[in-house]
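User: structure tokens for this one?
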Amino acid sequence: MSTMNLFVMASMPILKVLLITAIGSFLALDRVNILGENARKHLNKVVFFVFGPALVASNLAKAVTFETFLTLWFMPINIFITYLIGSITWVDTCQSYKSSKAFQRPNNRIMFCSFSDCGVLIGSLGKLPIIIVPAMCNEKGSPFGAVDVCHSYAMAYASLSMALNGIFIWSYTYNIIRISSKEIVEEVDQTSPNREPLLPSQNSQTPLSSKLQQFLTTFPRKINFKAFLAPSAIGVIIGFMIGMISPLRNLLIGNDAPLHVVQDSAYMLGDAAIPAITLILGANLLPGLKGSQIQVRTIICIAVVRYILLPLLGLVIVRGAVHVGILHVDPLFQFILLLQYALPPAMSIRTMTQVFGSGQSEYSVILLWTYGLAAVSLTLWSTFFLWLVVS
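Assistant:
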């Protein structure tokens, strides 16, 4: 396929996302107020507890067998690497910023480290693969083969990506923000007029290696493992069980299956997840228009690492794994793995900032800029990734 055809194929799903996102933003306007704050919370709960698990379980059950299961082992490792890179960037960025004079102001400490740590944002992955990748299968001249087969596997791969990312977000990112928020509040209390200021050794002079070692030592003790029992994680388990256990598969999957109505009902619920997620995305971006005191350097830092450095590292990791033979050469699977390195941050982090009551407006601005830039960067990276995996 020509580069122009690949560019058109990559841009069409992005344009669809932008249109539905715009509708979500419109519905969230004060004068419309269909997707106001309370409505978003309720709809998000329905997606989290009903639509999302149904989407994950139904698509994995249909596409995954014991043989295909053995080929998916690299995806959790791939997602883990993105979080690992983000964590390293988080520690390094905070360390360099804490040595600056701007950080010494309490408001800046809260603004930068309690919610918008670059690592938290860089490591997290948005849910766009579940929207973008299946849509590419429906485009004319798709390089991923027959539409039905492509769509089935695209939904399975993207559903697994969404579920695994959800586990990482609510077990890792959530606890990072919780711990960071608590520490920043304590630090601000110590530097208030009624407290003695922190010593330099406690503040800006701590070596990066010591901070990383302290983080790796204390974090596992503070982590909340309940996230591993999140609805999407349970959906993954159910989907794998049905797909890999032949009696269950024969009972539920296929038009001739005795209980195919259960699978069909799960598909119907799962189909509602994609438009609901996209509408919520648009509604959550709207508060970013109100602005905040977030520094431009923070947004630039996130954008550069998220949309330039991380995709390049992902390219080396994924193609290197293919080259040495530890990853199969399925173009669709490779494309999703590569795409994971070029995604904007997860929208769920805004919910987490609401839980801890800080950084909501600032993170909304970051979301607005990162998702706005993603419309361009995702199109360009998707075009390049398509050319790479099909050439």
